[in-house]
């Protein structure tokens, strides 16, 4: 059965962003209530009282008993708006309900038990769907729906058609998967980057020539290339003795 919490609300005579900002400054949360052909009414509720009322309950499936100007009205929360950065509630929509009229709402699905595939095969339980929509009389609203997953093995699944909700009609598509047990995830081995592999493969025994040494070595080679060996002096030819004029050689 749905839980019922009481909350005091006040009518707001002014609307708009400015009025809502002033209400929050006073510690109040702007709200509206509608349903059953009534005109939408602007309300405000205490911020602390609202947070306390919603602690430990499922807001969408909890009946709120609003006391407005001494008159009590039962309602469901249709929407809660929160601050984009802080967890503060900044606006609430209430939908009036009557005891004899069925309502449509979403209820959370809670998994119970430890699957066989998780205990004995190292599988992982994955909950795909976390809430379902139902149609039910206010007095039969469940605060949640429980689904036993103990018998699930790896590869097994449970669907919406496996849910059992007393005195309620399930509106969510019956073949929608609620939970499944998947095989254990294999650990991924990250391959080294090509540059890293090249660095590791480089032999450590080869000493790299430093920049200064390379230039110096190149200079020596160039110097040797430019220096040519000195040519050996050729021996001078011996001069032939002059023949004496007018006579024969003796």
What does this structure look like?
This protein has 250 residues and is an alpha+beta fold. Among the domains are: 4-97, Ribosomal Protein L25, Chain P, CATH 2.40.240; 105-182, RNA Polymerase Alpha Subunit, Chain A, domain 2, CATH 2.170.120. It is built from five helices and 13 strands. The chain has a six-stranded mixed beta barrel. A hairpin with a 6-residue loop joins strand 5 (71-82) and strand 6. It starts with a strand and ends in a 24-residue tail after the last helix.
Q: How are the SSEs placed, and which strands pair?
A:
Elements: E1 4-11, H1 17-25, E2 28-35, E3 38-46, H2 47-53, E4 63-68, E5 71-82, E6 89-96, E7 103-112, H3 116-121, E8 124-127, E9 131-136, E10 145-148, E11 157-159, E12 168-170, E13 177-182, H4 194-201, H5 211-226
Parallel strand pairs: 1-4, 2-6, 7-10
Antiparallel strand pairs: 1-3, 2-3, 4-5, 5-6, 7-9, 8-13, 9-12, 11-13
Give me some keywords for this one.
250 residues, 6-stranded mixed barrel, RNA Polymerase Alpha Subunit, Chain A, domain 2, Ribosomal Protein L25, Chain P, 35% strand, disordered C terminus, single chain, 4-stranded mixed beta sheet, alpha+beta
Instruction: Report the radius of gyration as a whole number of Å.
Output: 46 Å
Which CATH first-tier class of the domain at 4-97 would you pick?
Mainly Beta
Named at the architecture level, the CATH assignment of the domain at 4-97 is: Beta Barrel
Termini separation (Å)?
Answer: 159 Å
Strand content: 25-35%
Largest sheet: 6 strands, mixed, barrel
Instruction: Tell me the structural class.
Output: alpha+beta
DSSP summary: helix tally = 5
And the CATH topology of the domain at 4-97? Answer: Ribosomal Protein L25, Chain P
Q: In which range does the helix fraction lie?
A: 10-25%
- Write the CATH homologous superfamily of the domain at 4-97: Ribosomal Protein L25, Chain P
Placed side by side, the strands forming the largest sheet appear as: 1-3-2-6-5-4
Q: Could you give the order of the helices and strands?
A: EHEEHEEEEHEEEEEEHH
